[in-house]
Amino acid sequence: MNLDVVSHYIQVFGYIVILIILFCGIVGIPAPEESFLVLLGIFVSKHQLHLTKSMLYAFGGVFLGMMVAYVIGYYVGTPFLYKYGKYIGFSKPRMQKAEKQFNKYGIWAIFFGFYIPGIRQLSPYFAGISRYPIGMYTLVSFIGGAVWTVVFILIGYYVGDKFEVMYIGIGIGALVVIYLIWKSIRRSKQQKQREIEQTKE
């Protein structure tokens, strides 16, 4: 995404462009969300954008996208998504993988899914399809979305044009954290299963 093009659209149409781009990325319409957030941080560091406004509009787009995707999943269900998802880049294998991840990890797939392209876009739909409690979903989407947007905007703000190296580091760090949490959850489930089996004996 070209800096000059993004800057032009934001200057012409205002901060609402930030909200629209992030909203599109979350619901599945192709948009480079992480790169865009980092670019916003770069703009802020160069005094072309206001930090607070950029964060608020970015978070607004993310949170709105999460809620709309949930509602769509809730009301249209799996058959509709599998039939028409291909038109916005959701291939069947990709959806099956995301559905499996969500069914396995539940709300963790929402929170940490922000850092995994594909999971980030599809988990909200499957949360709605599975009728996941709206209160908990809203809370996790709010917190997870806020952390994700702020982190990547600040990467751009403090690292600037060197964001690619930092982005790789953040990505690796996020994967390590996700793996450790997954191992912890799996270990906990195995322990509970053993306790249940011992009780039956």
UniProtKB/TrEMBL annotation:
Belongs to the DedA family. This is Alkaline phosphatase. Residues 32-157 form the VTT domain. It comes from the Bacteria. One of its GO terms (cellular component) is plasma membrane. InterPro entries: DedA_domain (IPR051311), VTT_dom (IPR032816). It comes from Priestia koreensis.
